[in-house]
Amino acid sequence: MVPFSPRSKLCLNRRGVIISLSLTFLFLTLLSLWLFSTLAPAAIKIKPSEIQNLDDVVWVSKVIEDNLRLTKNKAEAEGFVKFLEFTSFYPQITKEYLITEEYVEVRLSYEGRFNKTIIHFYQNV
Question: pTM (2 decimals)?
Answer without folding.
Answer: 0.57
